[in-house]
Amino acid sequence: MEVKITDAVESSADTEQLQSSLKERESQVASLEEDLKQLREEMAQGKSANVESGSETEAEQPFESLEKDSQMLCLEEELQRLKEEMEQVRIKSNDLHENNWVAMEALTAAEKLNKERLAVAKGAQSVAEEALSSFQTEA
To answer: Which of 55, 95, 96, 116 might form a disulfide with 15, Cβ 3.0–4.6 angstroms?
Structure first.
């Protein structure tokens, strides 16, 4: 019985920890999405500025573009990795929540069973006391 209570408390703590981790991951994902958006905007502005001004040499343009493409690719990969981690944390959190629910239902059932057993034991004690009392008065 105590093991189930301890398991429920530990599961609750695990759930809280996972929810905290999930919020942290969501924040990281939002930050990466914002970085990615800014890089895309910079690339678009750079391309339009290059077309308009024609000031950069042709040799500089591909390297700058490759560097930004590389940054974007890295950010997209990191974003995807964090999204996958977030989903795993969310699944684990849901599993722990479900396990907590099952543990609480088991705890409730055990408490109900113990109350019923206590009532039966008290009834048996009362009958035994009455029998003892009547035996003592007869003797």
So the answer is: 96
Give me the residue spans of the domains in the chain: 2-138
Best CA proximity match to 20, nearest among 104, 28, 77: 28
Contacts for 92 with CB less than 8 Å, ≥ 6 apart:
18
- At 88-113, the pLDDT tens digits run 999 999 999 999 999 999 999 999 99
What is this structure's pTM? Answer: 0.48
Q: How far apart are CA 15 and CA 126, in angstroms?
A: 46
Task: Name the nearest CA neighbour of 65 among 35, 44, 81.
Answer: 44
Cβ–Cβ contacts within 10 Å for residue 97, how many? 16
Q: Which one, of 93, 4, 77, lies nearest residue 35 by Cα?
A: 77
CA atoms within 13 A on the CB side of 1: 8
